[in-house]
Amino acid sequence: MSNAIYLHAKNLSVGYVNGSQKNLLFENIDLELRAGELVCFMGANGIGKSSLIRTLAGLQTPLSNATITANNPRVERNVNRDGLERAVSVVLTDPLHAVNMTVIELVTLGRYPYLDWNVTLTNEDRDVIHQAIQDTHIQSLNNKKLYELSDGQLQMAMIARALAQDTPVILLDEPTAHLDLNNRVEIMNLLRRLARTANKAILVATHELDLALQTADLIWLAGQDKKLIIGIPEDLVLNGSFDEIFQLKGFDLKTGKVFHEAWRNKSVNLIGDGYEYLWTKNALERNGFIVDNKASSKIQITSDANSITWIIGEQKLNSLSELINALSNVEW
User: What average pLDDT does range 36-54 have in this prediction?
Assistant: First the structure.
């Protein structure tokens, strides 16, 4: 797998000009997107994530005399020159207006940068379109109109269009917004897999902190000083960068859990392992108990292929609901 730099931005400042007023969002930043990496771009609402994505895609003019270069064996161009569409594809949150087109027609649009004046698809074009549809698992949607799709299906179709464009760099702005958990996980896993198997450089602007921590190779974290903090997810958790930027309330990022108040002030010694232990501990703490391996009150978890049993003294309980009820009625 190559680790080549596919997109490089140097001395980049991003923002808007409104009359004589300049709204500067990011100032003099240097960025790289490398082959085979999934990068998640995160920050508070309104910090400028979409603006940076659009600037890197060549859709918005930088506020500085920046150099943005897309590189691959076929293309090496400055952002202001023709040909970027063969190096960078982008999936934005802008609403689609041509909702009467079919999925296959939408995906085919990804090939337009390669078509001649006859606008005739070659066998190579058809193969790339077919592969993009296969990679996103939307074969059954080919002939559906866009207005007939769910939000998750439409997002997959948009990603397929970007894949059909066959660029080394893909930029996506909030691709999982407004989707349910299953679709969010599917899309992030798809993007991670594409970075690996197709050796693409993929940048995703996202609010999905939990998914980003588990899927991203690198995080770009937008700070308050118009700069970016860049590092692997685990480093940014351990050095407190996430806590500083997001100022998380009631959530312990280092453990990935919501803080629970031990309102019962009662401790139990939980004995077990595996996912049964983790979910039992969660249920106990959510219900106000303290899990402490030095406590005198013991709960033993046993399990086989068919069932899980929780044992308190002489009692054998068959569900966490029964366990919580039993503990609630114990004289402490």
Answer: 94
